[in-house]
Specification:
about 350 residues, Oxidized Rhodanese, domain 1, 15 helices, Rossmann fold, alpha/beta, four-stranded parallel beta sheet, elongated, five-stranded parallel beta sheet
Length: about 350
């Protein structure tokens, strides 16, 4: 068994199992990709120990905490780790690489496993994510896909990925479609830190010598902020503008947002946010359509009156290469039409850098 030595973040791939010894709440907020959660303390226990530390004494907190950690470790040894072979080599981390992961590593090594501890814990990993974003993003050869609402940009990205192209699906990682009505039913957006971890993990897999396709997003997707370094790099990148007919877009939106008809009250409530921009009368009509589940006229007016008027202006303000953009026109956003768009996009001449 190798000596116990601090393992740095870039060496984490040498281990078959990553164990996060923090609480389930900390784990849910963000964790190392591929890690499993084996808490040394539960959410409630951690709060309890923190209170005793402040109100009674650090010694009392450590004594009681040690008993709780021992009980939780015993459970993990009996259950989670019961099938691990003698040559198992896990890497364990907690918040800062302190007591929780240290205790677990000590016990796993007493069993005979070559367990190691991540130096600096999750905090060191978080620093790694931030530095990866700052370092890798400026090296990406970005191709930004623009198009008015309903142009099926996300689906075109997926079709490009099926062709083996490199794609950064920001809305996928953000669990949000990026518009006023973009939150997905029954799916919470991840934390900001989780979103950045997912992006950083994807960037590490990219071949920097090949283009990376992504959608021209604003600086926020739902409540999540796109990392500033990516927003700035995206705004200078080559642009491809998908121009679909109004009919094709409406038909696509009715398929893509069909679920909005399942909760007419929630839809009407969200439309209420547009009163200041669109006036009570217009929004009142839209809300009535929402409550009747009459999505076709609602989506058509939203497109033509709310989204489209700002589209051209906002794109030319945001993307410096907008005047030199490549254009792709289509009147078909069915699955076949989208596949054909992806093919046309790949056949485009090499875009001006």
């Amino acid at each position: 068994m190798s000596h116990r030595q601090p393992v740095r973040v870039p060496e984490r791939h040498q281990f078959e199992t990553l164990i996060d010894a923090r609480t389930p709440a900390e784990f849910e907020l963000d964790h190392l990709p591929g890690a499993i959660n084996c808490p040394a303390l539960s959410n409630e226990e951690r709060v309890q120990i923190g209170t005793i530390y402040k109100q009674v004494s650090p010694f009392e907190a450590k004594r009681l905490g040690a008993a709780m950690v021992a009980a939780n470790l015993a459970r993990h040894l009996r259950e989670t780790f019961s099938d691990k072979p003698a040559n198992w080599k896990p890497l364990v981390y907690c918040w800062r690489g302190g007591l929780r992961s240290g205790s677990m590593v000590t016990w796993l090594r007493l069993v005979g496993w070559d367990a190691q501890q991540l130096a600096g814990g999750y905090k060191a990993f978080r620093g790694h994510v931030i530095s990866q974003l700052e370092t890798l993003v400026p090296q990406l050869q970005l191709r930004v896909l623009c198009g008015a609402t309903g142009s099926a940009k996300t689906r075109v990205l997926h079709a490009l990925a099926e062709h083996g192209e490199q794609v950064l699906d920001l809305e996928g990682y953000a669990s949000h479609k990026g518009s006023l009505l973009g939150n997905l039913p029954g799916i919470e957006q991840p934390s900001q830190k989780r979103f950045e971890t997912l992006l950083s993990e994807q960037l590490e897999r990219f071949d920097l010598s090949r283009p990376v396709y992504l959608e021209g997003e604003s600086a926020k997707i739902g409540r999540l902020g796109v990392p500033l370094v990516l927003v700035e790099h995206m705004r200078k990148a080559a642009v491809i503008d998908v121009r679909a007919t109004t009919e094709a877009r409406l038909s696509y939106l009715l398929r893509d947002y069909a679920y909005l008809g399942e909760d007419p009250q929630a839809l009407a409530q969200k439309l209420g946010w547009l009163k200041e921009l669109q006036g009570n009368e217009t929004v009142g009509r839209w809300q009535a359509w929402a409550l009747e589940k009459n999505l076709a006229p609602l989506f058509e007016e939203l497109m033509l009156r709310h989204y489209d008027p700002h589209y051209e202006r906002s794109q030319s303000n945001h993307f410096s290469q907008w005047p030199k953009r490549a254009m792709l026109e289509t009147d078909d956003l069915s699955e076949l039409g989208i596949a054909s768009l992806a093919g046309k996009l790949l056949a485009l001449e090499k875009l001006p850098a």
